[in-house]
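Hi again,

Forgot to attach this to my earlier email, sorry! This is the prediction with L3W bound. I've pasted everything inline since the attachment limit keeps bouncing my files.
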Amino acid sequence: QSRMDRSRSNGTRPQELHLLSRVGIVDPADLDSYRAAGGYSGLRRALAVGSSRVVDEITVASLTGRGGAAFPTGTKWSAVAGSPDPDKYLICNADESEPGTFKDRVLMEADPFALVEAMTVAGIAVGAHTGYLYIRGEYPAAERAVRHAIEAARHHRLLGDDVMGSGRVFDIEVRRGAGAYICGEETALMNSLEGHRGEPRAKPPFPTVAGLFAKPTVINNVETLINVLRIVAEGGPAFAEVGSGRSTGTKLFCLSGVVARPGVYEIDMGTTLRELLELAGGVPDRLRTILLGGAAGTFVTPDQLDVRLTLEDTREIGATLGSGVVLCLDESVDMARILRRIAGFFRDESCGQCVPCRVGTVRQEEALARIVRGREIGDRKTELQLLTDVDRVMTDASICGLGQTAASAVRSALKLGLIGENA
Ligand code: L3W
Ligand code: SF4
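Structure tokens for the complex follow:
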């Protein structure tokens, strides 16, 4: 898709690209091409203004995490930058595995130098000497692209013992995941990096206090980090002018399902869901529902298309932006089958460490399988009550986000009557 196609479509207002501005424009294997597109001006500016100013700009920008939980990035950076411990780490969470999410893959494959530059800005700002890029094992092309970019950056002294002649030390190591969704959970990821089983740790302590190798650690998603380049270039206040409240800057969404032009789209925070669909070819015919946020997200209905895509507005309708999934489903789908697929995913991916999730994800999938087969143990009402009970236990008592959100989609489908006694 051309840059113009991505930014203007169907007469909706133009969307200025920032995160995707170089995608399809630069040669991802060529540092000169990246530099010609403005690459490495961010790192140069960051080194000139100094680390504490960079951390302040990120805080003023109100940048929030783009992996799903939307925690303020500036709070993480300030905590680690302010720690007296000389050993600190930066981690980029590139273990993109949420079903329906493919934005970080596009960024890494098409604009890998941007991630390398952004990690360098982040690492130096918080005082880390080493950054780990933990990448999903099923992303070989993205891994090749970022490994090549790291080597080229090292060769040109944009990484290493004297970054850009500043005397600052920072380098990046790449680690590949081995196919477990749970290793995208930050503490499971750290256990995996340390060579242990990929099982989540109890929090607190949060990684900012005791993260990788029990040292203060900043961990950010790929899209979160790429935003840093714009903030360093334009300043935190300019970034915060776009959007509203805690929802500032632009956001990537992954459109799939029954849309005319599936793909990754960048919009200003606060754009409506309807406007986003217009960019992808219009509101689909016979649209029944949209899964928003991810497998751990929620369903929204066609009468909710005018919701503004911000953290606050989506929360008001009981939804979430999550990791940017917009999966469109029309009247032809069997909702119980869709939910069973989602439940099966969580059953497979539960690490099994805690009982509510290990058992709850199995019971949830079994109940949905019985509904799909039309062979309920009791009546449909009993199965739906069981789903509600399992939801409560998993949400309240699971150790990590996987178990706590494994019933979100089922809960919202029940609430909206997409499955139910009469559906
Ligand atoms: C310092 C405090 N740091 C919280 C940090 C915490 C973490 C971040 C968010 O993700 C989401 C869920 C799903 N001092 C802190 C603090 N932090 N309090 O803030 O923390 P938390 O615990 O709210 O969430 P989380 O466990 O990091 C859960 C989504 O992840 N999800 C799937 C995501 C999939 C992808 C993907 O494929 N790319 O992202 C599944 O559950 O939406 O909202 O860094 O340390 N006082
Ligand atoms: Fe493992 Fe699930 Fe417990 Fe998370 S909630 S620690 S994935 S068993």
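The longest helix spans residues 355-373. Residues 182, 200, 350-354, 357-358, 398-400, 402-403 surround iron/sulfur cluster (ligand 2) (CB under 6 Å).

That should be everything now.

G.
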